[in-house]
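Researcher: Structure prediction, please.
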Amino acid sequence: MREEATALLEEQNLLHLKDEVAGSLPYGIQRRLEIARALATEPTLLLLDEPAAGMNPQETQELTDFIKEIREKYHLTVFMIEHHMDLVMQISDRIYVLDFGRLIATGTPAEIQSNQRVIDAYLGVSSDA
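Model: Predicted structure follows.
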């Protein structure tokens, strides 16, 4: 098991941090480590709940690239709840949009970006002003 963990850390470019306390690592690295730990269970479905919460734009882009890489490499389905729309649009094949717990749209990133109901819900409508 130790060999498998070491191989996974090396594969994710985290081996140099193996002796560090996880809580002392930069936030973006902590997220990568959390995902690497999940990969150790050899999942076919990876559930992510706001993985970019609290990240700056550079960390968010690095996380986006990391998620895309592991999705392809491990042939994973990624189910993600996220508010960073740049990340969502770059990673997703299909998006489901909720507004106060109700499904208001489903589609490809391009379809969601142009969906008037989504625009109204998340940007507000002129009557809200």
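Model: The two ends are 58 Å apart (CA to CA).
Researcher: Thanks, that helps.
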